[in-house]
Amino acid sequence: QVQLVESGGGLVPSGGSLRLSCAASGRTFSSYVMGWFRQAPGKEREFVATINWSGGNTYYANSVKGRFTVSRDNAKSTGYLQMNSLKVEDTAVYYCAAKSVPGSSYVPRAYDYWGQGTQVTVSS
């Protein structure tokens, strides 16, 4: 079992930045692939970014590539999503997730554990 708790969301003007954190507890965090997803009202949950166990491989959705950076600190059992140049369309609840099977995935159902989500609102 892995418990995930996101933090760092909030209200930010367009063009601003936020850093989300995902604190993990339970089984060894470093053995899990970590992903970030988001869900806007009335829309399906969508992939944002993923990072493998070592942090050596990262993948991003085209909509955030070049603006968002995913990272992790296994010693602190914490993952991060640095979001720069935020746009109004980035407004959503952001979730971190962990999967035990090796290999990156942008599919929500591939992930075994989920946090409760943190709201990010970007104002125009």
Spell out the blueprint of helices and strands.
Layout: E1 2-7, E2 10-13, E3 18-26, E4 33-39, E5 46-51, E6 58-60, E7 68-73, E8 78-83, E9 92-99, E10 113-114, E11 118-123
Parallel strand pairs: 2-11
Antiparallel strand pairs: 1-3, 3-8, 4-5, 4-9, 5-6, 7-8, 9-10, 9-11
Report on this model:
With 124 residues, the chain is an all-beta fold. The protein is built from no helices and eleven strands. The strands form two sheets. Strands 2, 4, 5, 6, 9, 10 and 11 form a seven-stranded mixed β-sheet that branches. Strands 1-3-8-7 form a four-stranded antiparallel β-sheet, with no helix packed on it. β5 and β6 form a beta hairpin. 33% of the residues are buried.
Which features would summarize this protein structure in a list?
single chain, about 120 residues, mainly beta, seven-stranded mixed β-sheet, four-stranded antiparallel β-sheet
